[in-house]
Design brief:
This protein is of the alpha/beta class. Helix content is 38%, strand content 22%. It has 2 domains: 101 residues, Rossmann fold (3-Layer(aba) Sandwich), CATH 3.40.50; 92 residues, GMP Synthetase, Chain A, domain 3, CATH 3.30.300. The strands form 3 sheets. The protein has a 4-stranded mixed β-sheet with strand order 6-7-8-9. The longest helix has 15 residues.
Length: 200
């Protein structure tokens, strides 16, 4: 309960991993809560001084962490030692950076330039001769960055294409350390109901 309250109050959550133990079930559970809450997340691997290293040790460790926390692929990893102070100062700079990313606002015109370029590179999917049309997108909130995308048919907006568009947005704007939420809305939806809320 205390952990959930701390997550709720935070803008950026530091997920602390003991380098000698790796990612535990409890670590994964807490990280999942932070992700669902839309918080900025940094994976902090402590006791890095206690690990025997050789060429490729750090990259392999990163891969293992992301394999266990696939939904946190956007979260940066920093390796520190609280005992020796190694890279602790860099952690504060990273916290400020992720907080800025979580609060980023993107203008509608620039966002749609990126969406249109993405559509030009990879055409939207079709189903039974009907093609998905993406009319435009706009950002409606921050913490985390949340976008409404207007389409001709929600059913045609497959998860894989949504993931592609989100990846293109990340590629253009960074948004490191923050989840992105998308709301898919049909342009002819007169009620304006938000159905199909998805988090990616």
């Amino acid at each position: 309960m205390r952990t959930l309250l701390a997550i709720e109050r935070a803008d950026v959550c530091l997920m602390l991993v003991d380098a000698t133990e790796g990612v535990t079930e409890q670590d994964a559970k807490i990280a999942g809560e932070a992700h669902e809450a839309g918080k900025g997340v940094i994976i902090v691997v402590n006791k890095w001084d206690a690990i025997e290293k050789e060429t490729g040790t750090l990259e392999q460790y990163k891969k293992d962490v992301y394999d266990k926390l696939k939904y946190l692929a956007y979260a940066p990893i920093i390796f520190i030692s609280a005992k020796t102070g190694q890279r602790v100062n860099k952690l504060f700079d990273l916290i400020n950076h992720v907080a800025e990313q979580n609060s980023m606002r993107i203008s509608t015109s620039i966002l749609n330039q990126v969406i249109n370029e993405a559509i030009a590179m990879v055409q939207p999917p079709t189903d039974k001769g009907k093609r998905l049309k993406i009319f435009y997108g706009t950002q409606v909130s921050t913490k985390p960055p949340t976008f409404v995308i207007f389409v001709n048919s929600k059913e045609l907006f497959h998860f894989s294409y949504e993931r592609y568009l989100v990846n293109q947005i990340r590629k253009e704007f960074g948004l490191e350390g923050t989840p992105i939420r998308t709301i898919i809305r049909e342009k002819n939806d007169s009620k304006g109901d938000i159905q199909n809320w998805q988090e990616t």
